[in-house]
Amino acid sequence: MDITSLVTMIVGLFAITAQVAVLPIFVVTPEGQTGAQRRRTALMATATYIFAGFAALFVGNLVLGFFGVSVAALKVAGMAVVAVIGWQMLNKPTPSASESVSSDETKGRGKSPAAGTKEAETVHFLAASNTKIAIADPAKPRHKPPQLGVGIMPLGFPIYAGPGVLSVIIAWGSGTKQVYIAALVAILVNAAIIIVLDFLATPIIKLIGAAGLLVSEKVFGLIVVAIAVNGMASALLVLFPGLAGSIH
């Protein structure tokens, strides 16, 4: 097994999943659960991620063959999805920008800026999976969500096992036996990271703060875009071999 390729695959999955940026959503989603219930929710979300990843790795190419889609074509499409995800992560607005945009929109609708700011602050938005999670209103009675349900969706899918992650894993499924083994290890390593980060979500958020979360998402967004460009370039050379000659 090529250690360099394995590390690249692990870092790639970690970046696309944007696990640090997910932490506020993990804290908000199982609102009202006890510590033990949150840990079980984290385990269920991780199990969903592993199941989806293994399904994409072992069955993904069979589905592609059924629909007559080549691996190179999927890789181009998948890398395009990954590039969009990375671009959204890079361009996620800062809180101040978000508040000003919200205020401008609400002024045009005849609402007060305060109402717009409150509306903008009632959801957490994760650019990596284009997912919005509502923030519970402390003035309203809390309703504990179904433990298994919230772990499977939205945490397991589409937040952890989103379209970008699954597209990359399906592309790996067409590789050699060594690539298969490396993909399995990469999925399991990232699953372990998900569990650790979710278990320590609250202290990590307090430590790095909202600004640190935003910076981490933008940094990983840049890495994701670079991964997408590299993957798309190699796939295009497979689809259009003449491009290699024109480049030289």
Give an overview of the whole structure.
The chain has 248 residues and is mainly α. The protein has a domain at 1-70 and 167-211. Helix content is 77%, strand content 3%. It is built from eleven helices and two strands. The protein has helices at 3-17, 19-28, 35-67, 71-90, 95-108, 113-120, 147-160, 163-172, 177-199, 201-239, 242-247; strands spanning 123-126, 131-134. A two-stranded antiparallel sheet has the order 1-2. The longest helix has 39 residues, at 201-239. It is globular, with a radius of gyration of 20 Å.
Architecture blueprint of SSEs:
Elements: H1 3-17, H2 19-28, H3 35-67, H4 71-90, H5 95-108, H6 113-120, E1 123-126, E2 131-134, H7 147-160, H8 163-172, H9 177-199, H10 201-239, H11 242-247
Antiparallel strand pairs: 1-2
Helix pairs in contact: 1-9, 2-9, 2-10, 3-7, 3-8, 3-9, 4-8, 4-10, 5-6
Q: For the largest beta sheet, what order do the strands appear in spatially?
A: 1-2
Count of extended strands = 2
Give the helix/strand class.
Answer: mainly alpha
Give the number of helices. Answer: 11
Order of helices and strands: HHHHHHEEHHHHH
Mean residue pLDDT: 78
